[in-house]
# Entry
Amino acid sequence: MNNIKDYENLISKRVLLRLDLNVPLKNGEIVDETRIIKIVPVLEFLIKRNSKILIISHVGRPKGKVNKDLSLKPICEYLEKKIKTKINFISENILKIKRDDLFKNPMEKIVFFENIRFYAEEENNESNFSKHIASFADLFVNDAFSCSHRTHASVCKITEFLPSFAGLQFETEVNALKKVTIEVKKPITCIIGGSKISTKIDVIKNLIPRFNNIIFVGGMANNIMRSKGYKIGKSISEKNCGSIIEEIFEISKNTLCEITYPEDVLIGKSPDDDAQIKDLKDIADDDLILDVGPKTLKKIKNIIENSKTILWNGPAGYFENPNFAKGSIEIAKSIIKKNKDNSIYSVVGGGDTVAVINQLDAIKDFNFVSTAGGAFLEYLEGKELPGIKALN
# Structure
């Protein structure tokens, strides 16, 4: 997989740059700029080399139709201020644009196309659509690892028509994930949350033989506690996953991977309640499990202390209420402490986990924080992502 930083002469070259600027918007305002921050380095890299940049991205799921609520214009304007460089936003139908229509002003450095998912051809990975867009540029750069589990035109088919390269962020993401799957320093620990075991079972099964510890928190832990015969009250859980849990414990026993789940919890009668500590045997029918308890937290922190690599995907509790945020925050602080003395390599992924870290303003205190979501999980499953395959 070739990287754009190895390209010898980018002066005046037209670079079609696929980014993931699918940031959360509320009333046209950007709620979380994490994805924007991550793509600034590749833009600065290309600007410094006097390239002509054509940005393609998307926001939301317009399903191939124009939706003004999903316009990239506010994101373009935000990015313009962020990099302090004038950007020409192009709202015209991309199918009617020709190469000569672009960069008529020789001083212009960046053009930014409207939401590529306004075109059904994008998600259909359509060949003529890809060829048309490719005609605008001299080379293609994918710096949207988080979209690279999608077989879409601006991720896959376009590589058939242009010399194609991985972007700076793309390579960083792949290298970080290699360090928790292939190039591993042991002991290695995975802390995994979320509500459904079934959606992450393939990830778990792929990681157990490679990992020394898997720690279950959140809704996933509730499923395990119930399968072990404990009451979980009215807590979030998944039905009919007993056989999956049996399989997880069987695989872990055969591969010497230690499984950890809560031995005490914080409960409330509602998500807005105050926290009360309970052992598993004491949970009532109207209790909601909303965080790990102090004994469990102490055990998790001890495992982190004795780990050299850690993968964290999923908060420990309902962190939106400060009364149930302690588990997630203490896990973050334990990893940060080891990061500061370079005694651990840390990879964090998943929107809610990133939100916890953002609360602490601590993204820089982890080795790598992924915003990739589906692509992140599919890579951990051991799947070959279409976007990586296309670049190869």
